[in-house]
Amino acid sequence: MKNIALLIMVSMMTSCGQSSAHSDDYETDTFLTPNGRAVHIHALTHASIRIEFEGQEIEIDPVCKMGNRTIDYNKFPKADFIIVTHEHYDHLDTAAIRMLSKKETQLITNQHSAEMLGYGTVMANGDRQVVNDWLTIEAVPAYNTTEGHQQFHPKGRDNGFILTIDGLRIYIAGDTEDIPEMANVKDIDIAFLPCNQPYTMTVDQLVRTAKTIKPKVVYPYHYSKTDISGIPALLKDDGIDVFIRHFE
Predict the structure, then answer these.
(1) What's 5's DSSP letter?
(2) The whole model's pTM is what?
(3) For residues 181-192, b (16+ Cβ closer than 10 Å) or e, as one string?
(4) I need a labelling partner for 69 at 20 to 30 A (CA). Which of 17, 24, 61, 117 fits?
């Protein structure tokens, strides 16, 4: 891979059906930061992502149940950071947040989600927070542009997030289409891009976004029943690796 070290790639099938899965029952990819430290990314389900770094736990949009897939977050390590992009049921789950929380857990989200939960650090589009010496969080726009779809994710309400972990830059787009502001998303190593019309992007929009952002690795996620199998071929000449994981 170009300019990014993929140290390990371990594929483990998630548990399906009504049974719940343990924290180590998911596909996991491990990347090296510029300083040679490992970041482990676990594909949980749909928009739910677990990131481990040096004993720190970051949970993105944790949700206990999607379709016939159930996650028992009681079996996961407690989170140091929980990041929620917006308030829809497939991104904000109070039960999952409760299971993952400890006294020191920091929850970072948009205004409306914080109001619904009654707490949380609010970040709006354009905000940037240097959390500590290894983590910086940026909130970026995420919204619909297609006529008749804008009501799903109106401009200015929801967030995407860029996490810089020990120099490794991870873009989690949230629920969005290929908006003009993506031209300002720079130097991304790993991008999570949604693909699920009418709520997020079409395959063509995702490919355009990837070619705009030029990440080294793309994870299509939040794709439900959308056929994303052709995306690797559409990006093969752009030097972008596409990782297909169980983010239905």
Answers:
(1) E
(2) 0.91
(3) bbeebeebbbbb
(4) 117
Give CA–CA dist 177/46, Å, rounded. Answer: 16
Q: Give the CA distances from residue 163 to residues 86, 173, 190, in Å, rounded to whole numbers and listed in that order.
A: 16, 11, 10
Tens digit of each residue's pLDDT (9 = 90 or more) over 167-210 = 999 999 999 999 999 999 999 999 999 999 899 999 999 999 99
Nearest to 189 by CA among 248, 235, 232, 239: 239
**Residues in contact with 26: Cβ distance below 8 Å, sequence separation at least 6, in sequence order:** 12, 14, 42, 43, 44, 50, 246
The domains of the chain, with CATH numbers, are 5-224 (3.60.15.10)
For residue 245, which of 36, 48, 60, 17 has the smallest C-alpha distance? 48
Distance of CA 237 to the CA centre of its chain: 25
Name which of 53, 75, 50, 73 is nearest 61 in CA terms: 50
| Residue 215 CB burial class (10 angstroms; 0-12, 13-18, ≥19) | buried
Q: What is the mean pLDDT of residues 58-83?
A: 96
Residue 6 clears pLDDT 60, i.e. is over it? no
